[in-house]
Amino acid sequence: MRFSEPSAFLLLPLVPGLFFLLLLMGRRYIRDVQKLGSPDMLERFSSKALGGKFPVRGYRIESLFYALTVLFFILALARPQAGTRLEPVQIRGSDIYVAIDASKSMRAEDVKPNRFERAKIDTLELVRSLKGDRVGFILFGGDAYVQCPLTTDYEAVLTFVNSLDARTAVASGTSIAAPLRAAYSFIKPEEDTYAVLLLLTDGEDTAGDWERAARDLARRSIKVFCVGIGTKEGSPIPVFDESGRRTGYQKNREGVVVISRLDDVLLKEIAEKTQGYYFEAGGVVNEVGRFSATLASMKKRELETKRYTVYEERFQFPLALGMLFFVLSMLRSVRTKGRAA
Predict the structure, then answer these.
(1) Alpha helices of the chain — where are they, by DSSP H?
(2) d(CA 308, CA 67)
């Protein structure tokens, strides 16, 4: 026997409290009646003297019935459970690869706290919102690396993403094609319809060979959702020393500070070619919510069937006893009034 809502037992002190309160009221009522004359005579000739509240005789039984009614109702609220059964539950979901741009331009601070940290926040928010979907993690710059294969172990993914910091974004150059090719390689052909790639990047591409990779994904019906991290006005790229202290901003060969800007045109093209969507990271973190809503409308596949132990509910028994004592207390009250009349 177990109780799924044991907090209901906090109401148990009400039972003896109610019982003794009713006893006290019954005794006080009898004392008031006795001041008017003999209780037997009043019961015989005056139903109005009783007022239908408490019988002169048997008030202890009626008080007990009321208290037992409350007691069994509390037990029912605690939801007693006994006996178990195995219930199969189908887990349905999609396969999601999240790719974060780790190039130097992601250090830019035109979105707060910076582009890379914003991508981390979006990833953490997404993983926490998943229910049944498998998620994998890709880190890319000039090349792409699958840091975490598809899994439903969300805690492991959260731990890994939390371990990343701004110093991770040190890769030279950015190849947007790299994460597209990585997803193409790691997603199995039989999983194409249910797989998506979420690309979090500022869209700067120094390789320029993304079109073929996008076409390959589109041919296999793998959708790419792009989240543009940054602004079109852009921002300089901070430079840090080995201790993490900022030493200035990145400059080109002419000594001019480089301004990194969001290239949403490229990201929109990738999304369009793969029948995905483009979201822009605004002042408020809402792009993940929009992606999750879109993901929920997609076709899901059965990932696995698990059997869970389900406890049989037994609240019906104390509920029935509570109703029984409530009816008995009502019947005693009606019978008492009938006798008095």
Answers:
(1) 14-34, 39-45, 59-77, 115-129, 154-163, 177-186, 210-219, 264-273, 287-296, 316-340
(2) 38
**263-292: pLDDT as tens digits:** 999 999 999 999 999 988 865 556 777 788
Sequence-ordered list of residues with C-beta below 8 angstroms from that of 182, at least 6 positions apart, any chain: 97, 99, 138, 140, 144, 145, 146
The answer to whether the pTM exceeds 0.85 is no
Nearest to 67 by CA among 21, 9, 28: 21
Contact between 192 and 92 under an 8 Å Cβ cutoff? The reply is no
**Residue 246 is which amino acid?**
R
Name residue, tokens 């990201």.
267
**For 156-180, what is each residue's pLDDT tens digit?**
999 999 988 756 655 567 899 999 9
Q: What is the CATH number of domain 90-304?
A: 3.40.50.410
What are the beta bridge partners of residue 25?
A: none
Q: 196 to each of 48, 181, 298, how far by Cα in Å?
A: 79, 13, 10
Helix, strand or coil, per DSSP, at residue 242: coil
